[in-house]
Design a protein that fits this description.
It is built from nine helices and five strands; from the N terminus they run αβααβββααβαααα. It is an alpha+beta fold and 234 residues long. It has one domain. A five-stranded mixed β-sheet has the order 2-3-5-1-4. Helix 7 packs across helix 9. The model has no long low-confidence stretch (mean pLDDT 90).
């Protein structure tokens, strides 16, 4: 993780290329490790930042790549930054302090801000990051609720361009989830790469995401509040 930073002063941060796939993990956790996303909407928007066995890419955001020994140097474009900056993110302190000021720190917003300020080169290192995202659907439901409720509450303070891929991406997610067949095709593509029954979770995860997002948006018309962390646990 440190090597790209020490070899190239223009690289401002590094991040693991993929999530660790462990066959003994719960099936749902294996699904997220294989799909490379923690929000299936990102697959349709293309703004994910980990390697996905569905698309055989680590992102679909426009960028230039340079292959190095053990890592990729990606030249990111302002307005088209993948979701980066959370788990396993290593960034130069001096660079981070250019935008990470004030009371609030939204990880992907900070990376987006740094790219907008002219820091375009980031290294995706060919290592795996252990990420215990969700062991079952109830725990996933809590995380989805937290994500959407926080987003709806704080969105006026956020600067990450969620809609840089356009509203058609969201429409594709909704339509694909309702008619199912595109989801089955995505699952099949992933299964061809890694034969794991965890791919069966793709359809219910998309259904659950669509339902919880829709409910939260409707509820936000009446009341918005950040998600409570009381008693929070994995």
């Amino acid at each position: 993780m440190v090597e790209p930073l020490s070899h190239d002063s223009s690289v401002f941060a590094t991040e693991p290329l993929r999530w660790d796939y462990v066959s003994s993990d719960p099936p749902l956790n294996r699904y997220f490790a294989l799909s490379g996303v923690n929000d299936p909407v990102s697959l349709f928007a293309g703004n994910y930042g980990r390697y996905s066995f569905i698309t055989n890419r680590w992102t679909e955001m426009p960028h230039r790549e340079e292959q190095c020994d053990g890592y990729i140097i990606a030249e990111l474009e302002p307005g088209h930054v993948p979701t980066m900056g959370a788990n396993g993110f290593l960034v130069r302190t001096k660079v981070l302090r250019e935008v990470a000021t004030g009371e609030f720190y939204f990880d992907i917003d900070v990376v987006n801000g740094l790219v907008s300020e002219g820091h375009h080169r980031i290294a995706k290192v060919d290592v795996a990051l252990g990420h215990h995202f969700a062991r079952d659907l109830p725990s996933l439901s809590r995380k989805i609720n937290r994500r959407i409720e926080d987003f709806l509450y704080w969105r006026k303070r956020r600067n990450f361009p969620w809609l840089s891929s356009g509203r058609p991406a969201i429409a594709r997610f909704v339509i694909s989830t309702l008619i199912v067949f595109p989801l089955l095709w995505q699952s099949f593509r992933g299964w061809l790469n890694v034969r794991d029954r965890a791919w069966f979770y793709h359809v219910p995860v998309c259904w659950l995401t669509l339902w919880l997002y829709s409910r939260a948006v409707i509820r936000s018309l009446i009341r918005r509040a950040p998600h409570s962390r009381k008693g929070w646990q994995y």
